[in-house]
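Class, study these two lines:
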Amino acid sequence: MKLQTAEQTRGLASERSIQKDIVYMIPRGNRPVNEYSNPNLLLGIFPTLFPYGCGSIEDGSRPVKIDFREHLRYLLSFGDRRFEEHYSFIFVVFNILQRRTACFHAHLMTSRPYFQQSAQLLESLSSADIATAL
């Protein structure tokens, strides 16, 4: 995205100032970003760790698919230790990994044949039943 100054709008900008006016904007919004199948997520969150905009986790351009957990293990074993010494990288990726694991196990539970019966039993509970159990 190019930043346009008042001088440029009047046509007074020099070539040197035009070259300096490239600005990288981080998009913002009122909705959370999808963390599944989004190779640009960690690139956008940690631009200092991925300065060239490549090497992201779950990048579809790789000829061989690499698992999220294995790629994290690789990044945390870098010799320069920039990923393991970053103040928030480990916490963010651990949170993502933890939520993905929980969602995976929830999906396994709901795909079991006895889940429909359990779901019907849970729907039949009233607030009085829950108060009695508490």
Remarks:
- The longest helix spans residues 89-110.
- Residues 49 and 80 are 11 Å apart (CA to CA).
- Residues 39-123 form one domain.
- The two ends are 57 Å apart (CA to CA).
